[in-house]
Amino acid sequence: MTTQINTERRLQCPSCGKKAKQVSPATLRALLTEEHAGQIEGEGHACCASNDGDETGCQPISGDTGWRFCDSQNCDVAYFSEEGDTTFTKPQLRVAVGVKEMAGERPLCYCFGHSIASMKDELRTKGRSDALEDIRAKMKDPGCRCETENPSGACCLGSVAKGIKIAQEELGMSATDIPDPPAPAKSSANKGEKIAKVGTIVSAIMASSCCWLPLVLLAVGVSGAGIASTLEAYRPLFMVVTFGFLGAAFDFTYRPRKVAAGAGHGCCSTEAAGVDDCCAPATKGRFNMVALNKAMLWGVTVMAVAFLFFPSYVGTLIGGDGKTVTENMNRAAITVEGMTCEGCAALVAKAIRTAPGVLAVEVDYGKGEAVVGTEICCPVPEKEILTALEAAGYHGTFTETTKGTPVDAGRPSSDSDNRVPEEGGTALLPTGNESLFPAVFQINGMTCEGCAAGLSDSISNVPGVLGVQVDYQSGKAVVQSKDCCSVPNEKVLSAIETAGFDGHAVGEPEGNPAPDNTARETRNPTDKKGGTLILTD
Fold this sequence. Notes:
- The termini are far apart.
- The chain has helices at residues 25-31, 34-37, 116-126, 131-140, 146-149, 157-171, 188-207, 209-219, 225-254, 284-308, 310-318, 342-353, 382-392, 449-460, 489-498; strands spanning 21-22, 67-69, 77-81, 87-89, 107-109, 114-115, 330-337, 358-364, 369-374, 395-402, 418-422, 425-429, 436-444, 465-471, 476-482, 502-507, 520-521, 535-536.
- It is an alpha+beta fold.
- Mean pLDDT is 75; it is low at 1-6, 49-56, 259-284, 408-433 and 509-537.
């Protein structure tokens, strides 16, 4: 026959059936009378921190102790074992169990001497009880002894809070008769964290103000170049302040916090406690707030870095036209005063491009210099460029001007490809007696001799073209080919478009002329008005 042993732990009081809380064996040995204390075995739970430690107040009970404490007022049992039938009643303790009493002194805080009777005295004289504040203050110095003084072996704050309500009820005090308790002091750590985060953003914005402030002022029609130069001198200081605030914010957010005794943390049982109990677990809201603070800190960090490096990438945000200064342009170097970052360089380039005749601009704010490329046909518009710079809030001085090289310069001549300049245009005509087939094209967009020269060069490279004459004043080009072939109109129009102009054919013979009636081209030295081509039979 096999005997089954029941090893299930007993959690309810054998007298009243109420679920009881765990208690340390050290509590029983300290509070039971001498004749009963010797029956208790097992190690105690050192829940109360010493004054030398980093922590204050009581710590929660962890693990099984084998003993339970019943706080019900409906029975005399104070302690019982989880296994077995051992129980200890109120008369077997050296102190009165205040939470189990319904009248009399009813001590609740055994470390600092607070009871329902003392709370009544406070309510009568002051209209309120300061028991909770007094306990929280004294838990730090000299410290509490809950494990060996309180029959429950746990922090008494929860019991004291309930005791104040009981005292108020017994005195017949309504909620309106009770003054509001003093507002709890706000955490200096939370306040410091907010100040550090706000300071980080403000100082980062100020560190980049030398770049963004001129842009804002210019948008409303005010020159901010002088302000930018002043702020640029303070930029290193603002950067140091920014990183100082950011370091403080990280310290406030991630530095481990000491557990404050005022939080009501005590020798808590492993079971869930009530809402009014000081052993109530931390709420999920607190965890979410900590996570939110960390997320906000990293958001502040990203914003601070973005502002600090704003001068480095603002030029990319503003953008340019992508054109570069080439050898085929008249070039001028300008020393520009007042530039402090890429944003200033972008503003300077944008201002110079508004001057008439400017084709390309390259600005180096590090050197304080701008290189301008203008139309090769005309002088560099120095006055207009300087006026545009002053309107943008900058001052410039021309240091060097270089004449550009025409697009057809240096091209080798041949018997069938000679350039003959004409008044008002550029001609490319054959020197032999070949029969020619002429065609006329209307060109839109030419403004000077440089345009005519560039367009003439582009058309002359079209296969089959033997002669080209361009007149920028009339906006026409005469293109010639051999009499055996028609002018390659499509290719000529493509060359015109590639050169940056718009054109269309306006006249050409309907067919190839007969060999013996081919129009002969001769050049009359006296007829050169507007580059007109003179044809004779």
